[in-house]
Write a structure and sequence with these properties.
The chain is mostly helical. It folds into two domains: about 350 residues, no CATH class; about 130 residues, no CATH class. Helix content is about 60%, strand content about 5%. The chain has 23 helices and five strands. Strands 2-1-3-5-4 form a five-stranded mixed β-sheet. A hairpin with a 2-residue loop joins strand 4 and strand 5. The protein is globular, with a radius of gyration of 24 Å.
Length: about 500
Amino acid sequence: MSDTVLAPPGTRRSVTHRFLVLLGAFVALVAVTALVKAPSLSNREFNSDEAYVATQAQVLRDGGHLYHDTVDRKPPALPYLYAASFAVTGSDELLPLHVLAIVADAATALLLAIEARRRFGTTTAGVIVAALFVASVAAFAPQDALAANFETFMLPLATAAMLLGIRRRPAASGVMLALATLAKQTAAGVLLPLAWLAWRARRRRGVLSLLVAFLGVMLVTAFAFGIPEFVFWVFTGNGSYLDASRTLGYGVHEAAARTWSFVQGHLVLLLLVPFAWRSRKADTELWLWLVAAVVSVCAGLRFFGHYYLELLPPLCLLATRAITSRAVFRRPVAVVGLVALAVVPAIPFVARGYSDGTGRDVIIAEAVAAYVRKHTPADARILVWGQAPEVYWKSARRPATRFATTGFVTGSTGNRPVTSVGEVNAVPGAWGDFLDDLHAHRPALIVDMSTANQRGAASYPPSKFPRFARYLHDGTWHPVATVAGATVYASS
């Protein structure tokens, strides 16, 4: 006789039914998310991060190696996702990535719905949290809500890690959190609630399982890319980026401005959350998750709008707790009204996605890219002095150095004042790599964006950096054109 144990009658049908229900819910969420993020369904670049990652993806597709031929202070997941999209579609367009971003948001909403149904006991709770998340994720400026950015792809993985931790699976949650961290470093903050959950489930054994799984995936990845390079570019090389000691006042100003913008788009969510405090013992891990997200947003005092996306999953679950546990909110009319009020602030943000035109900085970069494409062969390398990765991406010309912007050597970075520019703020070792690359891969053209003041490049002209000024004025380089205010140099 066979030893096979037959499943109880109806079990297979039940599993199939659940799968179909989840699939239907996911398709519905993709459709709704696509509706609120419809402005992203184009090849338009919504922030310079997209152009930077697209440039890295082109280098990888051409046989380059991450953290050697192209670098950024970021984990590896997104450059390879972009490169895979370019390889599969045979195009360098961003539309497929924007579609994947919509799918990622829908996946996060579905995971939150699954947890809300389990935690609060009703399907209605799942619908509420999904609606809150989709509305909230759209209530950001277009450059934050519509870009195929790091946080967007990190969120479903970090949320899945939390769900596994809540279900007493510390090893699996550690693996999933490591994958989230490979999309964006700040996901590692979720170790706080996961460690608490692992301790509650299995004490020391649970915490050990979590850490071994998490560190195991990170170590395997580090080995694949080279441990020194991976550790430097993903972790230790971020010291100057996170250092806000000389720009504390500027950072506080940015915090106030960006946080106020976040409050405007998410006021209903923020007003509901305090009503969940009464159930804090049942939701300790959600509050710890929220604390970890707040720390991640504040790290480095840069406060880009898309950093605040990390707050949404715990906020939406806590807001759902408030709605489902307080009698004053449980009436159907109140529930519909609250969700509607949460949706309303997203409407003008979505409208901005249609109406916001291409900014001056991007127009300059696109004009330069068109010139470069016309005046250089397809295999040429070029150098752009400035923060304009769009030139590399749209001209399909590889950077002459491993850096897709010169911020690594000038110290110019986002959400920092011009007073922070200077060699003292360069990434350690970047100048040596920069000059070595220039001598190994002599560019066909050099574009100086400082004369166009593109993205504030006037604050870091070549003359401010003697080592590059000597290279540019060694007698072989001479200006050949001015394109949208940018000066183009060729070698004699």
